[in-house]
């Protein structure tokens, strides 16, 4: 027993994304999204590589013609679309104060560039929000969580085209007006930094169709920064009591040694990771990017008024995902370990998950302190969790003590950071119900407190079953983090 370190009103909950758990990809007037085109590749075939980027128009045409197989896991998700009442009731039983979810952009605007929204899509989220509010669960809604309408990729090459700014702002204003009495907490772009690692998933860019890859990616990111700032402006105007944040995939990077070259390398990696939040929280491009742009032949095309909109409409809070830390080395030829979308030198002091992600609870405390020192705005951990193989015992039990150990250690370090003086709004564990993996499209990589009976090929009853971690997390919430 410990005295609670967590403030009254702390937002405990869980996190999901529409493309990983909604399903019903061709129902209710929904259009195709970029993730609907990502096929499943078994681990024994791809190794540790993440196979999800579509790189060319030709490859996309092949997939649309059905030449990429028939296993598109993100199209089926776990059928939340039809089972949302059952799932939300389970979240309520755990005591969720908030539930992070995303709106599927192509469910509202199937092609992304229409003027009139799809009423069936709007009505679906009305029902979901009403169900959440029935249990006093605050929705935390991401506007764009890898859910770019496929038409915007085919017609404009995604965010490489400035016209997407207006399309996105129109979509944002539409949902702000529709749900202004139901949703207070919003996020603009999920893990906005992923575009540098996966241009198709992060920005809807077919990278083989462009001449200068780096130029295209950073120009697309500038368009997203402007769109985010304009969405912040619209949100504050339409929903005066709202809070709207940005979202980053945070990778705290340590130097491999105290060699100053390693320290500089780690500093560079951390700055490149925080560049995105520098723009969205501080409101301007950091000076350290000038050299990077110059050395990589990047010239950002800024329209008149861009700098003003970025500076005047910064986010209210900074949210981020945290799964692991990384290690940087200046030594050439160092072997790197893959984890999430990132890679780094193996840390000999840490254990790793079944997918090679190095487990570092104290790194979360480091990340919280570093970011709060840098920005002095509220922080919100909106993704943290352990992807693991779960076994259903003969009696139906799922004893996921490894998941409890992972989450306990991270929540404990989050509490220590709060004692250190960091302002943390809340914590939403990733994949609170088993869903399709973003990076590998596996169902067998499970994060949830709730087991879903489905395999990597879509076989199963979709029955929901509580794991051991379900009651553990329920007690964490009930005691406001006093009992871990």
TrEMBL record:
Catalytic residues of the enzyme: 383 (nucleophile)
InterPro entries, alphabetized: GH, GH_1_N_CS, Glyco_hydro_1, Glyco_hydro_1_AS
Keyword Ion transport: no
Entry EC no(s): 3.2.1.-
Organism expressing this protein natively: Cytobacillus spartinae
A GO MF label: hydrolase activity, acting on glycosyl bonds
Lineage: Bacteria, Bacillati, Bacillota, Bacilli, Bacillales
Keyword Signal: no
Enzyme class: hydrolase
Family indicated by similarity: Belongs to the glycosyl hydrolase 1 family.
Protein name: Glycoside hydrolase family 1 protein
SUPFAM superfamilies: (Trans)glycosidases
Keywords, ordered alphabetically: Glycosidase, Hydrolase
